[in-house]
Design a protein that fits this description.
alpha+beta, 5-stranded antiparallel beta sheet, single chain, elongated
Amino acid sequence: MEKELVEQISQIMGDWLPKAASIAVAVGDSYVYFKAGELDLRMHAGDPVPVGSVAEQTFKKRGKFEKLVENSPLGFPYYGIGYPMEYAGQAAVLVVMLPPNHVLSRKPQLRFLTGKLEDNWRPVPIERVTHIESSQKKTWFYSEEEAYNTIHTLKELRYQLPDYFLPVHRSFIVNINYIEEIARDVSSNYVLTMKDGSLLPVSQNYAGSIRERLGF
């Protein structure tokens, strides 16, 4: 594929894409072009198109395909949008990779969570929620040492929370304002001690983003 043509496409798309976005073009079973934005997925021209990726699904569907990629091998999620193309008689795909909050921020941020405590439902201001947990196919949030059951899933809540909430594990999201300290366990993994005394594990997939976010 002519580099000049792809560069023109990239420049045009750059007028409406955020700086964090990355752009890739796949022809056949490999990528032929990649331009990294602030969201650098460390892809390169010549890399094979992975099974199950946005590019592969777009090829199969032969139409526009969108997907939130949460289990990225890089350890952070992104939102991919694939557009089918044709180049020199071959099927091609243009993939735009965006930060997940760019697309999902269309939903308004939560100002409170309503949870069930015993037999009653209570709305709790979001700033008073210390952390949220997914356990045994249920979602719980904690406030003032009380545990509330909510109908929302952790995945639904993740992108509607204010920016002082931080995912630390596939089963936990914490309110930064309620972190007492950060230490390491015997396996050298981070553990958070919350102000209510709760001890929450930090998975290795989130360790890098936590260090960057909290500055240590």
